[in-house]
Q: What sequence folds into this?
DNA sequence: CTGTTAGCGCTTTCAT
DNA sequence: ATGAAAGCGCTAACAG
């Protein structure tokens, strides 16, 4: 049971400090010249009264206009990046009344030239803040350097790059997610078990940093807990279906004792589709990300676990961080790791139904 | 790349509909008398222009004062209900500028008379909305009936009651969480395995509805997948420690083949503490809820999985729903099931570090 | 360096 | 039934 103190206003502070509201506003925002004496008086009263600005009034009165830019892969509905876009859209919607307009730029995730081109447009726009997915390391470093030169803050989502200085990073800890994947897949495995690793390639996409880290984490678990287990890599090229089917068929003919399998990018559904066609079953399988097709595979039991996070939260929080930084001048935490969510056919529906933002 | 349409205001609507802003406001809020003709014109323009009110201006101008009440178990830091309270506090903080004051009432979760007493105080306060945890079914039904009589909306959190008509429910689907617990515990178990179920009782607390549902879900999985498995219940009374240790020791002497165990309330740490003292290990163990002591047991490997949700989100969303309903007159979804989060020693830290609200 | 003042978009009261 | 106008708390331009 608590009673709220009547909220105190700038006007109250001004009266108590024997100054005008204008002066209070100036010390609140470090704007304009204020005499040391006035500043002191005001700051004292501010602290004593625990002044908290009315965010609604503040937002309403502020005349500043901001432009935020986002730089993300283009994609179709149901794919990973479309969820990321949803978070951006949601943030953009909430930002409207804060006089923030959001310009979304898209590039082809399999073509670094397209990224470079779009990066140019972003620089030309000279936005007040930028959100980007650092798919192409080299090109991102170049863009980041230029943004830093212009003192435009930017946040990274989905994967991280060490060499640059973003305002913040929002994404998963890939290494640990690989480690967890191994634990879930192998905690009850036979010590000499044979594990299949399916790697799905696509031209133009030379295995992301994220995937590498997941594999590293996966192998670390195996070194620690199952040093005599055997890892068998199977490489698949997304384009050639009949060929792939052959590869997989041969693989299982040669290795009939495989009971565990994993895919480190988000294409696990591709593999389980082949397995279904080839009538291969009884394999414990783990994959990543909640693509619609992956979810179907999870629900039908072809995949046992999906490791994921809510992509839309990553981007939403990234946008919010930019907003907090630029508009409300709040401190932003630099490394923001998403929880690693474990999904099974038993909890996936609640996960998907839940509106997290 | 999209450009935002300049936001249209009530003033614009008024001009386009040839009425005054007052009239527009009247139709927007179904307040006061408006001629059918005016109403029509305004509604037409409203729709055409996709009018979205400026929430900041609206909040600022509104003079209405609201009081929300919460009715929750009292508890100490680190316990389950302290997280619930955190969500309430967070919401209360955000509501300040909306002229909503939150009065928190607490009762003793092991004493239904204390609930009745506090319920009286709530009714006397006659708040505009209520959030409550329905621990004592009978007493809650009585309170709910009176609230419904006064047309005071209320939301239920944590567990649900069928007989009453809350504005909304926020909590876990207990049945499914029991089913999932069984799956995680037993998916690779031997078909004749013996499973220990530890039930921790406390005087005054006669096994909650929630616990019953979890057990029901757990048993359903076993019927479906392991019909010949044996379930062995062990009853423990929280108060008598030396006695309990004896009980557990005897139990494992009589049943040396137990490899899986579960606790359905949040006291799994109690049991693993006994096991540690008795030097019993190698048991796969699942529990519920992120009490600090449970987290410790998870991290040390004594517990393999914890099933949980973020309690503070439940209460935060519950409060938000009341707010959306009373202030913004939005539709509220009635059943809101939380995701069932699966925690292991590998993902718990990211889960705990993540600021979800 | 400081005080005054005109709004921001919306709600609400008061005349008409 | 409707319009005009005051004012919510804050920002920012302006005058001094």
A:
């Amino acid at each position: 049971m608590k009673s709220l103190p009547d909220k105190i206003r700038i006007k109250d502070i001004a009266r108590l400090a024997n100054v005008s509201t204008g002066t209070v506003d100036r010390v609140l925002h470090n704007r304009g010249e204020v005499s040391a004496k006035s500043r002191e008086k005001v700051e004292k009263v501010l602290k004593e009264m625990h002044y908290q600005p009315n965010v609604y009034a503040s937002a309403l009165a502020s005349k500043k206009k901001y432009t935020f830019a986002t730089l993300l892969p283009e994609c179709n509905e149901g794919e990973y990046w479309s969820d990321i876009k949803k978070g951006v859209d949601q943030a953009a919607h909430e930002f409207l009344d804060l006089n923030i307009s959001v310009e979304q730029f898209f590039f082809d995730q399999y073509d670094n030239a397209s990224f470079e081109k779009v990066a140019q447009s972003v620089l030309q726009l000279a936005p007040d803040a930028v959100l980007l997915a650092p798919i192409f390391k080299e090109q991102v470093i170049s863009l980041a350097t230029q943004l830093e030169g212009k003192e435009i803050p930017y946040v990274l989502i989905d994967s991280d790059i060490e060499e640059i200085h973003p305002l913040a990073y929002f994404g998963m800890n890939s290494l640990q997610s690989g480690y967890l994947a191994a634990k879930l897949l192998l905690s009850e495995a036979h010590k000499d078990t044979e594990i299949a690793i399916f790697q799905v390639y696509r031209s133009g996409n030379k295995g992301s940093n994220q995937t590498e880290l997941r594999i590293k984490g996966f192998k670390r678990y195996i070194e620690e807990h199952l040093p005599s287990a055997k890892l068998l890599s199977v490489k698949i090229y997304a384009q050639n279906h009949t060929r792939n089917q052959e590869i997989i068929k041969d693989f299982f003919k040669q290795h009939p004792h495989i009971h565990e399998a994993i895919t480190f990018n988000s294409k696990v559904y591709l593999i389980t589709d082949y397995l279904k066609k080839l009538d291969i079953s009884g394999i414990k399988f783990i994959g990543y990300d909640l693509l619609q097709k992956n979810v179907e595979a999870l629900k039908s039991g072809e995949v046992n676990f999906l490791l994921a996070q809510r992509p839309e939260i990553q981007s939403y929080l990234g946008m919010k961080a930019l907003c907090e930084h630029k508009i409300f001048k709040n401190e932003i935490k630099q490394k923001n790791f998403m929880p690693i969510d474990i999904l099974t056919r038993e909890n996936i529906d609640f996960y998907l139904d839940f509106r997290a933002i």
User: Anything to note?
Assistant: The interface with chain A takes residues 1-4, 7, 52, 54-57, 59-60, 96-97, 101, 103-105, 173, 176, 179-180, 183-184, 187-188, 336-342, 344, 346-347, 350-351, 353-354, 356 of chain B (CB under 8 Å). Residues 14, 19-23, 26, 32-35, 38, 57, 59-63, 97 of chain B lie near DNA strand D (CB under 10 Å from a C1'). Residues 128 and 326 of chain B are 8 Å apart (CA to CA).
